[in-house]
Amino acid sequence: MLPEVRPATFRRSVAEHQAAVRTLLAGLPDALGTQTVPLAAALGRTLASDLTAPRPLPPFANSQMDGYAVRAADLSTGPVPWATLPVAPPIPAGTAAPPLPPGHAAPIMTGAMLPAGADTVVPIEAADPPQFPAFVGGDAPFRDHTTVTLPASFAAGTYVRPAGSDLPAGATALAAGTRLGAAQLGLAAALGLAALPVRRRPRALVLSTGDEVAAPGTELAPGQIHDANTTLLTASLAEAGWDTATAGICADNAAAFEAALADALAPDPDVTDLVLTSGGISQGAYEVVRQALAGRGIAFGSVAMQPGGPQGAGLLALPGTAPVPLLAFPGNPVSSFVSFEVFLRPVLCELLGVPPRPLVQAPLAVALDKPPGKLQVRRGILEDGRFTPLGGPGSHLLHALAHATALALLPPGPGHLDPGTDVPVLTMGDPQ
Ligand SMILES: Nc1nc2c(c(=O)[nH]1)N[C@H]1C(S)=C(S)[C@@H](COP(=O)(O)OP(=O)(O)OC[C@H]3O[C@@H](n4cnc5c(N)ncnc54)[C@H](O)[C@@H]3O)O[C@H]1N2
Ligand code: MOO
Fold it and tell me: MoaB/Mog domain spans which residues (predicted)?
């Protein structure tokens, strides 16, 4: 059950707006539920519940080397630091090993089951002779009375992989919330599991607004710009594991915008977990999102942050559609990007148990001025452990953003920060 958020005009701190977004999206984990999918379809999905090992890994004690399975005690019975032992029948991988007769050495292959009684494997290179007898692996019949000489320097347990030494039966193999990559799926396969319980992928509807905004690939009329935000927000969501749909670019006409939104939500057989709009929420005369949605459950206001000051959020209540959480981001592309990184990604990570972007403290390489009392998010790079800004604070500077690998979160408070001031920095990795 999602909470009611009443229309209002707000002035919030960043923490207050983050809390409002968290409350709005609190029902997401339950709404996603669980579905079981084959391993081949589980790549990139999120594990829905703790995965318990149904059997030990490895399932039986086995050899780590091609060599001889022995009892370590049989190697140091005489006055010399070696022992000559009769050779028992060989143990290939994939067979049930018979018990090792006392005082014998059984040729054993890597991964083969250690016979009962053996506790050590001596690699073939350490044996004399350092090759297996001709009857091992060939068609020749087993020859009794063959012997091998082995050094006594191998302590009990050497080159043995005990049952459960990777993971005991009943242990937690992977925790709920784990994003399933190659290694995690490999572990599930090794445990014998053919399918895994995963969360339904969340799904968002992304809409850009503005008479001036035209789709990439189209010719621009005078005064028009290309739509960056649909792509930017869709890609941000996809990186966070979401499926996305778009209702395209909506003109600055409240009735048409509302109709487009209702259309995109109503006939859709797939659940929409979130609507994300950009543009049309500030103080202008043509603020289509604000005008259309202020009476539909969405609160608009300002957050003490730059860029990304204007914000809207709430539970969208359109006639004929199910209530759905909606976040309205400002139209400037960097404002939309920063809004995603500050308000949405951390909440999604927290709710869905995904690790957030790493946050480090780093000194500023240069002096920076900012609006006092607001959190300013500067884009830049970490170089020699210091934060160097790329471009200025303007929220239209997409080129600098595209080269940034770090976001400095300059705290509200004084408007001037000296070089060397330690500030929190979100690291984003290399641009792809
Ligand atoms: N008088 C005031 N004016 C503005 C204020 C204010 O407080 N008082 N706030 C400014 C801030 S800060 C921001 S951010 C913007 C937010 O405005 P909107 O959310 O209403 O966005 P728009 O006006 O529609 O667009 C802003 C800007 O971004 C461009 N844009 C919009 N959509 C896209 C898109 N999909 N792709 C690329 N670029 C887009 C648009 O052309 C504008 O240049 O308001 C300030 N004004
Ligand atoms: O707050 Mo606006 O998002 O700076 O440009």
Answer: 205-350
Assign a CATH topology to domain 38-57+165-199: Molybdopterin biosynthesis moea protein, domain 2 (3.90.105)
Q: Which of 282, 338, 396 to mutate to test the pocket of ligand 1 (most atoms within 8 A of CB)?
A: 282
Instruction: Give the Cα separation of 126 and 108 in Å (integer).
Output: 14
User: Residue whose CA is closest, atom 24 of ligand 1?
Assistant: 279
Listed by start position, the domains of the chain span: 9-33+200-352, 38-57+165-199, 359-427
For the domain bounded by 9-33+200-352, which CATH number is listed? Answer: 3.40.980.10
Q: Give the Cα separation of 14 and 200 in Å (integer).
A: 30
ipTM above 0.90, yes or no: yes
What pLDDT does 93 receive?
A: 94
- Tell me the pTM: 0.82
Kindly give the distance from the C-alpha atom of residue 20 to the centroid of ligand 1, in angstroms, as a whole number.
22
Q: Residue with structure tokens 């909606």?
A: 326
Amino acid of residue 58: P
How does pLDDT run across 314-356, given as a tens digit for each residue?
Answer: 999 888 888 999 999 999 999 999 999 999 999 998 888 788 9
Pocket test for ligand 2, best of 282, 306, 339 (most atoms within 8 A of CB): 306
Q: What spacing in Å lies between the alpha carbon of 153 and ligand 2's midpoint?
A: 72
Facing residues of 214 across strands? Answer: 226
